[in-house]
Amino acid sequence: PWHMLFFIVIIFLGSFYLVNLILAIVAMSYDELQKKAEEEEAAEEEALREAEEAAQAKENKRAAHAATHAAAANAAAAAAAAAAEADGASVAKSPSD
């Protein structure tokens, strides 16, 4: 009868150990999956932020390019107006004007 008690205790302790081992493995797997999901989310957010920065830089470059062209056009128009005014000043006017 005492032998049976020994084996019952061993079976209960072994079952407790195996259940704890399985739960530990499940918990570790869950933690790994959670970390991997967080890393993927962080990488996705980083890629999105970089894409937004690239789009903003492209827009700024396009705006600067347009401003440069507008300034060049204004300078050309001013130069043409100055040249026209200079040409008009060298023309001799009649006294009747």
TrEMBL record:
The keyword Hydrolase does not apply. Residues 37-65 are annotated as: Disordered. This is Voltage-sensitive sodium channel alpha-subunit. Its main location: membrane. It comes from Cimex hemipterus. GO terms for cellular component: voltage-gated sodium channel complex. GO terms for molecular function: voltage-gated sodium channel activity. InterPro entries: Ion_trans_dom (IPR005821), VGCC_Ca_Na (IPR043203). It is a multi-pass membrane protein. Residues 46-62 have a biased composition (Basic and acidic residues). GO terms for biological process: membrane depolarization during action potential; neuronal action potential. Pfam families: Ion_trans. It is found in: Membrane. Residues 2-37 form the Ion transport domain. The lineage of its organism: Eukaryota, Metazoa, Ecdysozoa, Arthropoda, Hexapoda. It comes from the Eukaryota. Keywords: Ion channel, Ion transport, Membrane, Transmembrane, Transmembrane helix, Transport. The chain crosses the membrane at residues 6-27.
